[in-house]
């Protein structure tokens, strides 16, 4: 037929010679020609002349409600193994869901009778179907359903991981290959399965996983244990031979279904499928009912003329001339020639653009001009070809046979026929090759007459051959989504769209390339499911070519590749080198990656290449198994991954608390210092006693105009040397010297008893609580020295015996008005006003009771004529001595927290508090004011002494070389509100712990890659492990965690009269978070390092039982270094050793370390390992050196600032900037043009900032820094450390040369940029709220990424950006802005119950009656 395109209408297009078909559908196909009758309606045949294209209606989705034919098949499936053959869209999956629910119900009953449990497996052929079918099952039953696909890493799961899934789910949806793998690895057997559902079961043949499951496992399963089989398909015939065996007319008419109606079995041609699945084929008995729900398309065959033999195009000739002998271009040239003959010259030339784009993408990550002349030449050729194509003068397409093939012209004619149905047009054009799809897509967009078509391309993932166009899974989903919502109305697709994918029903399906299997015919036809839809098959006159290529991967080879996937980034597929032997046969040498346990395996002589390859792979598997690189299931040994996976999971103890977490708090026993415990062999009343002088460093013993006495501490045992104690007087620091004397003094029991009574009296007076203690059981006593007593060996002669006797014999003394000067160092008691106690400030000889009230003073007497009138009016007291001077007084505050550096509030002068008092209405307290003031400090002093003594005991117990003051700091928590806490030391110790453990792992495990070492390190240094160790060592007994509390303070071995059993028990325990114990361990390591550098810190780590096997001193790291040479000396040719040593300022003994440290994982077929192990070491080295630097530079830096500075000083951005500054990036050995481009872009950006004088502060923070640049800085640090035999001094030299100059200028508290997320998190923690959640939203529909932040389940901020990091940053900043604008923002949302510390806890001033 030859028709001018401009005059062709729809009837002419479909007009072919007709031949009437008999009513029984037994048309023969004479001479290979197609029948000239076409289908009308559902399975009927009509003349082409009568075909019309009606308007294309919308399709309504049907709810999943069981239909009669579904129930019919369901009932059959309950009794037998069934293969359900129904058209696409007829609801086969719903039958499977009903069967799954039925089997699940039976399983629940059977579990009451038998111990084992059985599962249902739903197997699919394509990954997208995993999610699609799992969602259908979940939506229609209440069973626990889980989906599995390769991207979840299931190939490397352990038996434990699979067992957890088997125990927690009822239905498992997965690809058949995954199920086959877990059967082969022995993770499950078919006896544990109650139902196997095979989706698209027509694939069950030959070596498809469906068939392998049946042959390898089902056939061998005992009959009584075999699971039920349910298969689903629309095309039970899946072979080319079956296609030839059946008459073509049967396929066109869809009469194979009729052959099955009411038959218990199936036609002979379906026997292989029944045999393979051990099931019988069934279909609906009432086909009319099926037709109600499944619309069959009108099937139309359109012929096109055989294309002429096109001569090669000029573009093809030019490219062929350039690249004929370049192997990389072989496939591209072949593809272009195929396109020429099938599609015509115009399409052939256009296909080059797609081919070369793909070749360019494949080149990325492989090419580096500095490395390989061959690679450089290949890259040059690709770019040259792209230049030729880009510069070529392409002509617009014309519907002429010289430009487009007859087949393409006919396709354009077909599509034109639908221009009047554009509103509801929805079609698919099926092609065989990917490049055909892309070129047709371009052509349709350029044909003006097809303006109404919005085309899209849907192709598979492609192969890895050069020139093969690929489409990623994510792009597939985007295309399908666009097709579903109408943004695309014509898909040009390969067979990926034939089955499985959730593509909406179409009203036009065109087979541009002829199907070569019955499955392809039925599946593609099933896409035309709308009412009155058209299924058009384009057929070349007299040409029935068949296509198909089968490729099989050998199992042993697959196992080998699976194992290699466990290697780090430098992993590569095994290299099989097959050689022909002189005596006949073949041998295979298998080369494995450099860091594999085995490097080379050679096979025995085999009769064929294939057998030699298998033999080598099998032999390698055996050796890997012997090396324990493969486990008993012949899977890669992934113990380290399991450990890492488990360590990240919260583990709860028997009380339900997550081990190692900050929120997990427990009560622990609090140790009493041994010094305060009276030994049984001690005399009850000692005749000798040890004295310690407590001397406050004050000039003339005065502070703020008030006197303070020096006190003595008397103990049964000698007090050891302890650090100075800093006391705080409303924020002003004063030093207390603790001066123990080693020689005890003799003392009479009478004198000792006076001191004992004075001690009780003093403690009672300052706390207003009566203490009880037997004289024979006292632990320590206190006694004052006289004012300005000298501190020497005769200090005992200066004890204020007179003051103590007065204190224990008298309570309140009358005031002698004739000797009023005696009150200068007195505590007076106002008998007129509730026995209030006051310190006498001054004796006011210029004022008397009749003096007028001074102006401008807010005192209680305001409003009265004089002081006497106030006493008369308020207390009804008559004045007797009008000339007596007034006393200017200050109310005595209760015991203050002298250990708190933050000043507490001053005593509030309440309305009744006196400023002046009349002496005759007062009495004098029996304890002098200077003694009383010093006594008020005693609870704080003893609290600190308790902590110091526990620190000394801890140091002695573990024999750890830590300074006393640093150890005390290390065991003091922030919650104690002292002037020091462990936070700074914890930061240093955390870094040293990582540093030390990393050193050991590096030297002791030379065959483990960075990923394995990282996971082992996590297991050793994680909070959970540190917590467990601290708990085992009972470190909790020594920790100071509670703030000073005057109400709770008790002298050692003394009880207050108000104490009950609960109070006594509470005093013996304290509450600690698990993480606090972990923090203390790290702080002790930091304290040890500050005390004695790495040797002391290592000794401390060993004492705290941190895993350091075979390491007892620092030199052991070098002595135990098991790393064998990993680099061939020839590899040094790749680097400029002299220049690298100049950059490092270090002369390498082992220069091959330079090559390893600079080699990136992209280098192919390299005997040199990549830098990852050295980077792992260098990361810890650098982290420690930076923290050490910060400690030295900012000795008083707050922990929060130190953490922020560390984060700013150790990250990919700053290290990349350092790499650029020292020009190390120029020496990286890699094989990736992407890296070249990324490095160049970063360097140019930095230079531009310098030119603009904008390279200030953290100028790198907003730049895109290639990670390789930061990696090599760390790996070179690691290399220098190893080469220097693990000498920290060598590290310091390179740190001072590389890192310190950048940090000194660019990373300071003034230049610091705190990330909003970090700032928000710290703010929330400070406020006591831990209900902060950041939720990321990634969209496959667009490039926009979103973040929503929740506080207590309330969404409080939303942000979007092109990447998730920016979105998180914007969302966090939004909340910070809200907090700045509204300080009560968090209060309105947060419902956490937090304990707000109040100064009143330490310095309250409420009224109370003086009891003692």
UniProtKB/TrEMBL annotation:
Q: Which cofactor does it need?
A: Mn(2+); Mg(2+)
* Dicer dsRNA-binding fold domain span: 556-644
The superkingdom of the source organism is Eukaryota
Question: What UniProt keywords apply to this chain's record, in alphabetical order?
Answer: Antiviral protein, ATP-binding, Helicase, Hydrolase, Magnesium, Metal-binding, Nucleotide-binding, Repeat, RNA-binding
SUPFAM superfamilies tied to this protein? dsRNA-binding domain-like, P-loop containing nucleoside triphosphate hydrolases, RNase III domain-like
Q: Which residues form the Helicase ATP-binding domain?
A: 73-254
List the GO biological process terms: regulation of defense response to virus; RNA processing
Which intervals hold domain PAZ?
809-926
MF terms in GO: ATP binding; helicase activity; metal ion binding; ribonuclease III activity; RNA binding
- Residue stretches making up the Helicase C-terminal domain: 410-574
RNase III domain residues: 947-1093, 1137-1285
Family affiliation: Belongs to the helicase family. Dicer subfamily.
Tell me, what does this protein do in biology?
Dicer-like endonuclease involved in cleaving double-stranded RNA in the RNA interference (RNAi) pathway. Produces 21 to 25 bp dsRNAs (siRNAs) which target the selective destruction of homologous RNAs leading to sequence-specific suppression of gene expression, called post-transcriptional gene silencing (PTGS). Part of a broad host defense response against viral infection and transposons.
Protein name listed in UniProt: 1721_t:CDS:1
Provide the species name.
Answer: Cetraspora pellucida
């Amino acid at each position: 037929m030859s028709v001018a395109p401009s005059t062709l209408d729809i009837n002419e297009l479909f007009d072919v010679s007709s031949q009437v078909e008999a009513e029984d559908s037994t048309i023969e196909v004479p001479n290979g020609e197609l029948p000239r009758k076409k289908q009308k309606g559902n399975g009927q045949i009509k003349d082409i002349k009568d075909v019309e294209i009606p308007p294309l209606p919308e399709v309504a989705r049907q709810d999943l409600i069981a239909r009669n034919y579904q129930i019919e098949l369901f009932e059959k499936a309950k009794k037998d193994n069934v293969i359900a053959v129904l058209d696409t869209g007829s609801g086969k999956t719903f039958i499977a869901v009903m069967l799954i629910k039925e089997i699940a119900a039976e399983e629940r009953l059977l579990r009451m009778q038998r111990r084992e449990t059985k599962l249902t497996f739903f197997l699919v052929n394509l990954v997208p179907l995993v999610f699609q079918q799992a969602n259908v099952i979940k939506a229609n039953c209440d069973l626990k359903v889980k989906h599995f696909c390769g991207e979840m890493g299931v190939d490397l799961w352990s038996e434990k991981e699979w067992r957890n899934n088997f125990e927690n789910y009822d239905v498992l949806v997965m690809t058949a290959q995954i199920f086959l793998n877990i059967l082969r690895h022995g993770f499950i057997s078919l006896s544990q399965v109650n139902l196997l559902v095979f989706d698209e079961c027509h694939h069950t043949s030959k070596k498809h996983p469906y068939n392998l499951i049946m042959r390898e496992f089902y056939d061998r399963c005992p009959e009584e244990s075999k699971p039920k089989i349910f298969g689903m398909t629309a095309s039970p015939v899946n072979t080319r031979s079956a296609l030839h065996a059946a008459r073509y007319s049967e396929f066109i008419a869809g009469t194979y279904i009729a052959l099955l109606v009411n038959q218990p079995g199936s036609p002979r041609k379906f026997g292989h499928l029944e045999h393979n699945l051990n099931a019988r084929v069934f279909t609906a008995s009432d086909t009319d009912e099926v037709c109600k729900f499944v619309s069959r398309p009108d099937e139309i065959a359109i012929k096109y003329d055989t294309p002429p033999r096109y001569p090669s195009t000029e573009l093809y000739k030019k490219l062929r001339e350039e690249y004929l002998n370049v192997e990389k271009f072989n496939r591209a040239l072949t593809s272009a020639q195929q396109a020429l003959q099938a599609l015509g010259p115009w399409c052939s030339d256009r296909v080059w653009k797609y081919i070369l784009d793909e070749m360019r993408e494949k080149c990325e990550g492989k090419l580096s001009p500095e490395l390989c002349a061959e690679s450089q030449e290949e890259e040059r050729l690709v770019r040259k070809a792209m230049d030729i194509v880009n510069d070529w003068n392409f002509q617009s397409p014309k519907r002429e046979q010289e430009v487009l093939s007859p087949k393409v012209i006919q396709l354009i004619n077909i599509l034109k026929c639908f221009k009047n149905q554009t509103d509801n047009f929805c079609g698919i054009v099926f092609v065989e090759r990917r490049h055909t799809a892309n070129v047709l897509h371009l052509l349709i967009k350029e044909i003006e007459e097809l303006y109404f078509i919005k085309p899209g391309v849907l192709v598979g993932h492609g192969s890895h051959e050069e020139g093969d166009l690929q489409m990623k899974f994510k792009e597939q989903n985007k295309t399908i989504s666009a097709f579903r919502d109408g943004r695309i109305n014509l898909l040009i697709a390969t067979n990926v769209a034939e089955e499985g994918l959730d593509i909406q029903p179409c009203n036009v399906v065109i087979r541009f390339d002829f199907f070569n299997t019955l499955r392809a015919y039925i599946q593609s036809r099933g896409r035309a499911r709308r009412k009155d839809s058209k299924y058009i098959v384009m057929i070349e006159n007299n040409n029935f070519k068949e296509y198909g290529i089968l490729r099989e991967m050998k199992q042993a080879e697959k196992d080998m590749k699976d194992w290699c996937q466990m290697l780090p980034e430098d992993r590569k597929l095994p290299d099989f080198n097959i050689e022909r032997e002189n005596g006949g046969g073949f041998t295979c040498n298998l080369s494995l990656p450099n860091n594999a346990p085995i490097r080379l395996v050679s096979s025995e002589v085999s009769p064929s290449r294939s057998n030699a390859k298998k033999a080598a792979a099998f032999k390698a598997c055996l050796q890997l198994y012997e090396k324990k690189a493969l486990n008993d299931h012949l899977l890669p040994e992934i113990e380290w991954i399991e450990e890492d996976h488990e360590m990240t999971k919260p583990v709860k103890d028997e009380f339900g608390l997550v081990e190692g977490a900050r929120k997990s708090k427990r009560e622990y026993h609090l140790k009493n210092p041994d010094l305060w415990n009276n030994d049984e062999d001690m005399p009850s009343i000692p005749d000798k006693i040890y004295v310690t002088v407590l001397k406050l460093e004050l000039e003339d013993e005065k502070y703020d105009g008030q006197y303070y006495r020096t006190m003595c501490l008397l103990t049964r045992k000698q007090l050891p040397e302890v650090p100075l104690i800093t006391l705080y007087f409303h924020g002003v620091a004063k030093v207390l010297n603790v001066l123990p004397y080693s020689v005890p003094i003799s003392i009479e029991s009478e004198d000792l008893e006076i001191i004992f009574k004075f001690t009780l009296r003093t403690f009672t007076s300052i706390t207003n609580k009566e203490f009880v203690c037997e004289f024979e059981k006292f632990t320590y006593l206190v006694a004052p020295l006289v004012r300005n007593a000298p501190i020497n060996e005769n200090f005992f002669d200066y004890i204020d015996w007179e003051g103590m006797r007065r204190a224990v014999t008298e309570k309140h003394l009358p005031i002698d008005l004739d000797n009023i000067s005696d009150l200068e160092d007195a505590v007076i008691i106002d008998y007129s006003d509730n026995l209030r106690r006051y310190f006498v400030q001054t004796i006011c000889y210029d004022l008397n009771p009749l003096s007028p009230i001074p102006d401008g003073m807010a005192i209680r007497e305001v409003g009265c004529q004089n002081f006497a009138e106030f006493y008369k009016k308020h207390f009804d007291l008559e004045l007797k001595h009008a000339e007596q001077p007034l006393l200017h007084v200050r109310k005595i505050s209760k015991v203050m927290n002298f250990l708190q550096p933050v000043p507490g509030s001053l005593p509030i002068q309440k309305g009744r508090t006196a400023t002046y008092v009349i002496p005759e209405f007062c009495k004098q307290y029996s304890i002098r004011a200077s003694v009383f003031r010093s006594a008020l400090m005693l609870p704080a002093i003893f609290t600190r002494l308790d902590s110091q003594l526990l620190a000394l005991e801890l140091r002695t117990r573990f024999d750890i070389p830590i300074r006393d003051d640093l150890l005390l700091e290390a065991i003091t928590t922030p919650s104690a509100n002292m002037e020091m806490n462990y936070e700074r030391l914890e930061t240093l110790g955390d870094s040293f712990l990582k540093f030390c453990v990393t050193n050991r792992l590096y030297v002791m495990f030379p065959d483990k890659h960075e990923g394995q070492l990282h996971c082992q390190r996590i297991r050793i240094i994680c909070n959970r492990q540190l917590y467990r160790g601290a708990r085992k060592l009972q470190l909790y007994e020594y920790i100071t965690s509670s703030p000073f509390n005057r109400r709770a303070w008790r002298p050692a071995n003394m009880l207050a009269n108000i104490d009950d059993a609960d109070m006594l028990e509470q005093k013996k325990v304290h509450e600690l978070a698990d993480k606090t114990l972990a923090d203390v361990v790290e702080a002790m390591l930091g304290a040890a390092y500050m005390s004695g550098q790495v040797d002391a810190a290592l000794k401390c780590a060993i004492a705290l039982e941190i895993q350091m096997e075979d390491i007892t001193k620092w030199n052991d790291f070098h002595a135990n270094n098991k790393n064998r040479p990993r680099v061939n000396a020839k590899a040094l040719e790749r680097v400029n050793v002299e220049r690298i040593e100049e950059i490092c300022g270090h002369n390498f003994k082992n220069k091959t370390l330079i090559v390893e440290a600079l080699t990136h994982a992209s280098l192919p077929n390299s005997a040199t390992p990549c830098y990852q192990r050295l980077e792992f070491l260098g990361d810890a080295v650098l982290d420690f050196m930076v923290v050490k630097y910060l400690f030295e530079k900012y000795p008083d830096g707050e922990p929060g600032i130190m953490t922020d500075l560390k984060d700013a000083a150790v990250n990919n951005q700053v290290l990349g900037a350092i790499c650029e500054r020292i020009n190390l990036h120029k020496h990286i050995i890699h094989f990736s043009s992407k890296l070249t481009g990324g490095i160049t872009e970063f360097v140019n950006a930095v230079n531009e900032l310098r030119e603009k004088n904008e390279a200030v502060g953290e100028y790198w923070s907003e730049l895109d820094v290639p990670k390789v640049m930061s990696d090599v800085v760390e790996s070179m640090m690691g290399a220098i450390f190893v080469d220097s035999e693990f000498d920290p001094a060598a590290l310091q030299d390179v740190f001072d040369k590389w890192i310190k100059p950048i940090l000194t200028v660019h990373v300071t508290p003034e230049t610091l940029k705190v990330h909003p997320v970090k700032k928000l998190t710290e703010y929330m923690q400070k406020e006591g709220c831990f209900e902060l959640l950041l939720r990321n939203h990634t969209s496959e529909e667009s490039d926009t990424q979103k973040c929503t932040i929740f506080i207590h389940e309330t969404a409080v901020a939303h942000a979007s950006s092109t990447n998730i990091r920016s979105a998180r940053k914007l969302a966090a900043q939004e909340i910070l802005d809200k907090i700045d604008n509204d300080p009560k923002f968090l209060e309105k949302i947060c419902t956490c119950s937090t304990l707000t510390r109040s100064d009143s806890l330490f310095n309250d001033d409420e009224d109370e009656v003086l009891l003692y």
